Fold this sequence. Notes:
The protein has about 290 residues and is mainly α. The chain has 2 domains: about 5-140, no CATH class; about 145-290, no CATH class. It has 12 helices and 3 strands. Strands 1-2-3 form a 3-stranded antiparallel sheet, with helices on one face. Strand 2 and strand 3 (about 190) form a beta hairpin. Helix 6 runs antiparallel to helix 7 (about 125-135), helix 9 (about 200-215) packs antiparallel against helix 10 (about 220-225) and helix 9 (about 200-215) runs parallel beside helix 12.
Amino acid sequence: xxxxxxxxxxxxxxxxxxLWSAIFLAGIAAIYAPMxxxxxxxxxxxxxxxxxxxxxxxxxxxxxxxxxxLAELLAEAPAGERGGALLxxxxxxxxxxxxxxxxxxxxxxxxxxxxxxxIRQIFGRAVLxxxxxxxxxxxxxxxxPSILMxxxxxxxxxxxSGFAAILLDSAGVPVLREGNIIQLPDMSLEVxxxxxxxxxxxxxxxxxxxxxxxxxxxxxxxxILVLSAVPTAMITNIIRVTGTxxxxxxxGGKAAQGFYHDFSGWLVFVVAFAFLAGINRMMAxxxxxx
Length: 290
């Protein structure tokens, strides 16, 4: 186990690096504090990004898991690399461009770049390589711009309503689909943005990325696990919309609203999460058997 006491001698031997680290952290805090307040406000008010609170915690935990290796690298006192300045310059450019265009997403994306560049500049490439994933993972805490969200959610709405209409028709439910509206005999169901599955998709992508990084060693297995989150989220959401249509047809519109609507969202996410965990476990078991 490596704790603060183990890190302290390393920092003493690298006083210059410790000083630059302190300056870096102070600069980051001063520059990004106002954006952090707005970011937290977005997490609280945008339902699709409530998971943002967990992303820094998960990222920090991954860094904690690497504490022994990081202590070893820091003890070797590697020289910093000038290549980090290019990343810092790119981050500053994104920050300035985002501020001029009043585009919060671009401004926020500059943070991982500046962090990566500063770490490489101060501690070297080896330390940055150990921290690439937890730094890149922070991107999941940034809400997607509304313009881009619209381009993603509407196709998802059409896919969910289209396949749900096919399944309802196969189940003997009279149905007519018009865009993202499903017409039933006694009522119509709208597959709204909240029912597009985008919330599950973003959360599952974040979860699958952590699963892949922690439990899979080969890059192709990691890619499969992350990419599988997309069809998993879409299929489970189609099942949810279909179930809503069946309930509405059998028991009326009220049966498909309120408690069922909220509970089905959580249930679908749990099922999707279990499916991803199963894929991860199968790939891990196959790797051990080879």
